């Protein structure tokens, strides 16, 4: 029997390796920009077309490469970063394996233009599928210009697994933001379809965060800085009141390399314990500087996982540093036991010369004995029965006995079936149903609806019930294209981050089907001309759309649902009535009728129950009567 084990050709081995290193266009963007940083560039320009599927181009002013290096960089395990195995534990550069360029060249058409400062002519290398097509000298500026065209052109199956352009573009923006955050001293720009999305000038870390995520982040940031013998920690964390429902802006960098580490993330979340709103996540951009010999970064092909020599100590340092920053900048509640508060409200902050004595004004022509029509009342010495009877008629109302009558049909004033930001004074009261109503139901704490049924009682979560109703309503509109719109009196402008702008482009057709009238305006801005008619009049367009995007990203990450279901679920959650909203009997009856008209009235959109029933037998067991 002949031998069956054979060495794979280099081209096939490179394509296999590319499956680990280059998973999508964003992976190629990461590798190319990191190579430019390792080359010492301080100006890096990224150009993409069709979300990197057609073109990914990175232009830098780094050290460039010689003729030999320009050809050798496309070979497997060819690198200038390390020379021996021990160098793996002293790495300060971004790349070190020497696999990225070989992997990219195996699955794309690559053109490399490079020149060193000391050379008169540069070199152009053209490669397709690991094969060098052409190489020739050319007059070029100092630095490197590398273009990747038609990614996965020779592996159609891999290309078919790529998502839509908007999804792939979001991944590119995420990788670009991570690298730009790690190097605020470098100029970066990102161009997509001849539009400049980012123009990041060199500056401080705080300036880079604001330039990437928006000017409103300037007031959200709290600095963190801690120096120890184990690690040096610095960066910024977000204030608790600005926490979001998604883990969007959470970045950990170890020696300026972005990493994913649930263990360290737990340390940050632990520091926010008891001051963070439920089911929300704070933003943070934290940099850990550590001795390379104390970590191992050769764990994952994408180099986003790291092993630490003493991870428990790092956990404790991060937790205490974040907690100290929250307390230092008065984010967490604090008590001053030395302050005397007995007379604090009586002390005036004004100087004595500015304090004025109170004055009294009076009417010198006032006559207490003159009645309303100008005639004099009887004198105080007059004790006639006529005056006494007239006084009694004026002071005591005729219908005084009706003040203590309680009508059977009286019901308290309630709010309609809409969301209100502030709870009404009657919110804590139990709504008493009208006596003539055949259906008996009322609210408890303005959160649950209680209804009497034949076998016992039924409890309904009003927010979950309304979300179920709206979810099926919006889902039907998306399927039948039947959404109606209400024109806004004044158009609203919404500024989004580049990632959210790409997300909006992706779901724009579905939003228009639901009734939103949106149009892009500029690089990352949308104008809202109208909203769905069934949202009502007292709706904040900007708030509802921002909340919609946050819920959509959360559902996409956690639930993995399709686009239409995700959008219907997100809009239902954003526009449903909230717990604490008072409802009148008519609104309660309408809510119950619509709930039982749904396909799945018993289950909320999050898979939890909307209705709970308690039978008379169960109630009797509670009172120990069985």
From TrEMBL:
Annotated keywords: DNA damage, DNA repair, Endonuclease, Hydrolase, Nuclease
The MutL C-terminal dimerisation domain, residue ranges: 440-583
Domain DNA mismatch repair protein S5: 209-327
Pfam families named among the record's database cross-references: DNA_mis_repair, HATPase_c_3, MutL_C
Chain segments annotated as transmembrane: none
Taxonomy, superkingdom: Bacteria
Gene Ontology terms for molecular function: endonuclease activity
Family membership noted in the UniProt record: Belongs to the DNA mismatch repair MutL/HexB family.
Function according to Swiss-Prot or TrEMBL: This protein is involved in the repair of mismatches in DNA. It is required for dam-dependent methyl-directed DNA mismatch repair. May act as a 'molecular matchmaker', a protein that promotes the formation of a stable complex between two or more DNA-binding proteins in an ATP-dependent manner without itself being part of a final effector complex.
Protein's name in the database: DNA mismatch repair protein MutL
Organism of origin: Sphingobacterium litopenaei
Originating gene: mutL
């Amino acid at each position: 029997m002949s031998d069956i084990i054979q060495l794979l050709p280099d081209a096939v081995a490179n394509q296999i390796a590319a499956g680990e290193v280059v998973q999508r266009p964003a992976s190629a963007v990461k590798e190319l920009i990191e190579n430019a940083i390792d080359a010492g560039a301080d100006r890096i320009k990224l150009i993409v077309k069709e979300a990197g599927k057609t073109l990914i181009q990175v232009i830098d002013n780094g050290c460039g490469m010689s003729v030999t290096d320009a050809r050798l960089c496309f070979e497997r395990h060819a690198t200038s970063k390390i020379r021996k195995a021990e160098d793996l534990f002293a790495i300060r550069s971004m790349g070190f394996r020497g696999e990225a360029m070989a992997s990219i060249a195996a699955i794309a058409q690559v053109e490399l233009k490079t020149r060193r400062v000391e050379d008169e002519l540069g070199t152009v290398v053209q490669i397709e599928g690991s094969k060098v097509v052409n190489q020739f000298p050319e007059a070029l500026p100092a630095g490197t210009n590398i273009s990747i065209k038609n990614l996965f052109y020779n592996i159609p199956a891999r290309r078919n697994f790529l998502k839509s352009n908007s999804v792939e573009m979001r991944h590119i923006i995420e990788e670009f933001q991570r690298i730009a955050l790690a190097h605020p001293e470098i100029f970066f720009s990102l161009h997509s379809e001849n539009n400049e999305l980012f123009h990041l000038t060199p500056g401080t870390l705080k300036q880079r965060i604001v330039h990437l995520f928006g000017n409103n982040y300037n007031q959200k940031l709290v600095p963190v800085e801690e120096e120890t013998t184990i690690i040096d920690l610095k960066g910024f964390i977000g204030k608790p009141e600005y926490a979001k429902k998604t883990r969007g802006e959470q970045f950990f960098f170890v020696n300026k390399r972005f990493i994913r580490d649930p263990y360290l993330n737990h340390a940050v979340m632990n520091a926010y314990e008891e001051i963070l709103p439920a089911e929300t996540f704070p933003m943070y951009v934290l940099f850990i500087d550590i001795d390379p010999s104390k970590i191992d970064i050769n764990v994952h092909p994408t180099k986003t996982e790291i092993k630490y020599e003493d991870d428990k100590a790092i956990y404790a340092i991060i937790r205490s540093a974040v907690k100290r920053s929250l307390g230092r900048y008065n984010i967490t509640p604090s008590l001053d036991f030395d302050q005397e508060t007995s007379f604090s409200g009586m002390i005036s902050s004004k100087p004595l010369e500015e304090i004025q004595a109170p004055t009294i004004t009076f009417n010198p022509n006032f006559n207490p004995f003159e009645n309303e029509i100008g005639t004099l009342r009887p004198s105080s010495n007059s004790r006639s029965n006529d005056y006494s009877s007239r006084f009694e008629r004026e002071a005591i109302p005729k219908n005084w006995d009706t003040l203590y009558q309680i009508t059977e049909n009286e019901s308290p004033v309630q709010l309609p079936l809409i969301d209100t930001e502030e709870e009404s004074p009657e919110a804590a009261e139990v709504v008493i149903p009208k006596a003539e109503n055949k259906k008996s139901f009322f609210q408890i704490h303005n959160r649950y609806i209680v209804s009497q049924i034949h076998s016992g009682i039924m409890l309904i979560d009003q927010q979950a019930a309304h979300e179920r109703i709206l979810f099926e309503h919006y889902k039907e509109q998306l399927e039948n294209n039947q959404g109606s719109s209400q024109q806004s009196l004044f158009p609203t402008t919404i500024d989004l981050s580049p990632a959210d702008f790409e997300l909006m482009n992706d779901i724009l057709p579905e939003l228009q089907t639901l009734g939103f009238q949106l149009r892009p305006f500029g690089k990352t801005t949308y104008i809202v001309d109208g909203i769905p008619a069934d949202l009502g009049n007292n709706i904040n367009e900007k708030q509802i759309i921002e909340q919609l995007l946050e819920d959509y990203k959360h559902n996409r990450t956690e639930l993995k649902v399709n686009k239409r279901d995700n959008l219907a679920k997100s809009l239902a959650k954003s526009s449903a009535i909230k717990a604490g909203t008072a409802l009148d009997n008519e609104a309660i009856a309408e809510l119950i009728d619509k709930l039982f008209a749904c396909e799945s009235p018993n289950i909320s959109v999050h898979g939890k129950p909307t209705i709970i029933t308690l039978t008379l037998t169960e109630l009797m067991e509670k009172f120990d009567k069985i």
